[in-house]
Specification:
alpha/beta, TIM Barrel, eight-stranded parallel barrel
Amino acid sequence: MTAQLGLGTYRCPDVAEAALMAASHGADWVDTAPNYEHGRAETSLAEVLAAYPALRVSTKVGFVPADARDLGLQAGVLAAADTERGHCLAPNYIAWQLARSKRLLGRVPDLVFVHNPEHGCGEADISARLHAAFVALEEACSHQVISAYGVATWLGISSGLFDVPMLLDLAAKAGGSNHHLRAVQLPISLVHLAPVAQALNGHGPLADAAAAGLEVFASAPLHGGEIPGMVTPELSELINPGRAPAEVALAVVASAPGVKRVLLSTGNPEHWTQAVEAVGRPPLSPDVLRRVVDVLGT
């Protein structure tokens, strides 16, 4: 495959244990957020990142961890409405959260994602929200607080609220032609096949990201662990004969045109090793991917 496996920590009950397992098995990337592991994820990662300095890390801004709400109010970077909503992309909060993430992680993150900017936001407001966030992140880049940023979304692209060309346009308005937008993260799986189908026809978020040189991080490739139980023997034979359901599902995601990194949440060494092998095999052909789309739909 052209994609690489990275550790996603959203569903990891013990982030430090999962990160230590992945790093000791050769992982080069871990993705997290301030609100993961009940707000402890960044702190949990600090010791592992110190022990494995080559391990790269991405975190996020947007959701407000419960333990940071009072601190944010006291610092004057959050309003009461923000704490009730649990999400904020105001420039002052972004700057505050970036400094907090650096302190908790023990290093500057390699990439910072704007986390679900669609949260509580309608079509009339999304452009202004994203632009303000990008301006704040470009300022952070100019002061070398971070080096790059991206957008991690669950429904923003699939719902049509925004697309990759819109993100690129807003980044250019915020940072000029040398802006620091570098990546997008979105769900891609046997349940979320629309981006794959679109990419096979040369359009959609994966094709747009590839054309712009953005890295695509595929999140939830096993849809929270539900997909292996959904893969029938017939589907497994169609996709990758002789392979386990999880391997089959990961092969589809890793073979999707434009996907550069597949984020898997697991603390199980056996599952991780199987996933590394699945992602490391030659990619499935476009014809196989088209048959999968035809069978499962989008």
